Amino acid sequence: MGSSTESFVRRVRSRLDELSATERQLADFLLEFPGELASYAGNELAELAGVSPSTVSRFIRRIGYENYEEARRHVREEQETGSPLFQASPASSKRGKPVATHFQQSQANLASTFERLSDAVMGEICKAIVNAPQVLIFGSRSSHAFAVYLRWQIIQVLPRVTALPGPGETVAEYLSGLGERDCVIVFGTRRQTSQMDKVLSAASKAGARLLYISDQTSADYAGATWSLQCECRGPGVLDNHVAVMALCDLISSMVIEGSGSAGRKRLAAVEQAHDELGDFD
């Protein structure tokens, strides 16, 4: 077997760009339910994922295992760690108790996401955001809501924070002036537009500090300064983004606290302006 420190999920994620269409279909299934590999024979897994047994065999070799049994043993070892990721199954969405099922999935996603975070790394990220001359936050489609929310929170203490693209805008207007001290935050949860690749490429080329936030089914971005993965498995057809919002809240809280006296002065000025303008009833 390959490196014993490389998890099964990491093996799959690191090779997503190399997979054929049917292999990617199997990969997507296993990233949602990796524990299923330990529970079924290869032909049974193929039927569950809607691919052929030969696809399963090719996929297992492509991600670095000699055979299916070796991969199966590795997944069983990871199951013993108690990770919620390895406890989920397709049947969990069919139990007839949607409230409890969604609550349990949200809890599992939060636990799996936050157990991978460290105070040291989050401190580095938030210090870079606070000290950046400008902060650009990108997300397309549903991820645009995360970008707007995060910007809405931290602009209270940092004056130059932009969520892009804005209505009717392209990203070029913002990317052309990027510098090394600038910070770019990209939400790369699945089903992004082609604009995301342009933002990632421009940030890397400029040498900007890049925070890449993705989900368990998306490939890593090698050029990221920091790469964080959120568990977004949902019990139904939709992804569950509770962990993404919780991560936004964590970043916002740490940035506000880390902004120090300058941030507090800006926050006070913003609140005074609210009063003077009568913004709230």
Automatic annotation (TrEMBL):
Q: Name one Pfam family in it.
A: HTH_6
Q: Does the keyword Ribonucleoprotein apply?
A: no
Q: Which UniProt keywords apply?
A: Glycolysis
Point out the coiled-coil segments of this chain. Answer: none
Q: Where is the HTH rpiR-type domain?
A: 6-82
Gene3D superfamilies according to UniProt? Glucose-6-phosphate isomerase like protein, domain 1, Winged helix-like DNA-binding domain superfamily/Winged helix DNA-binding domain
**Region named Disordered:** 74-96
Entry keyword annotation includes Membrane: no
Family annotation (InterPro entries): Homeodomain-like_sf, HTH_RpiR, RpiR-like, SIS_dom, SIS_dom_sf, WH-like_DNA-bd_sf
Q: Polar residues compositional bias: what residue ranges?
A: 81-92
Q: What is this protein called?
A: MurR/RpiR family transcriptional regulator
The top of its lineage is:
Bacteria, Pseudomonadati, Pseudomonadota, Betaproteobacteria, Burkholderiales
